[in-house]
Amino acid sequence: MKSKMKALSVIHKGTTETERTLNNRNFDYGPLQRIKVHKDTHPKVMKKWIKAFNWHDELQYSGSPSKSRKLHRHEKLKNRIIFAIENHLLRGKKIARKNYIIVDKQLRKPPKLSLTPFIFIDFMKYTIKALFLFNIDFQGT
Q: Which regions of the chain does DSSP assign to beta strands (E)?
């Protein structure tokens, strides 16, 4: 997986930027004082990773974010306002955009399409407009 990530990074960012990011493996999570502490249990899969957690001294638990890095999503003003509305006014209900629509059971059947003369007329109007718009010549000259 790392080789694939490196190849894609070279394609999109170039070799110098890729080498710089690969050599600097320490990720700056920013100040963590606003993030809630997780007090529930973790899945069994995470136990090995949690035992190997030896980079807690690299985390920034307080202070302001570093000026040299881009702000994370949770640090941007727009998202902080949205999160405040979600957490305090809506009591945890999310305002997130969804990439799906919940369809009613009665509407799950696809609509029947009928080719009426009106559809054909609309198609011809848009085809003629496209021909004039792109200056397509019928004689081929």
A: none
Question: What is the tens place of the pLDDT at every residue in 89-109?
Answer: 887 777 766 677 666 665 566
Return the percentage of the chain with pLDDT > 90, whole number. Answer: 1
Gap between the Cα atoms of 63 and 29, Å rounded: 12
Q: Tokens for 119?
A: 């559809």
> Is the pTM for the entire model greater than 0.85?
no
Sequence-ordered list of residues with C-beta below 8 angstroms from that of 122, at least 6 positions apart, any chain: none
Burial of 84 (0-12, 13-18, 19+ CB in 10 A): exposed
Angle subtended by helix axes 2-13 and 15-23, to nearest 10: 140
Helices (H), 14-141: 15-23, 44-51, 77-84, 117-133
Q: What angle do CA 36, 39, 45 make, to 5 degrees?
A: 110
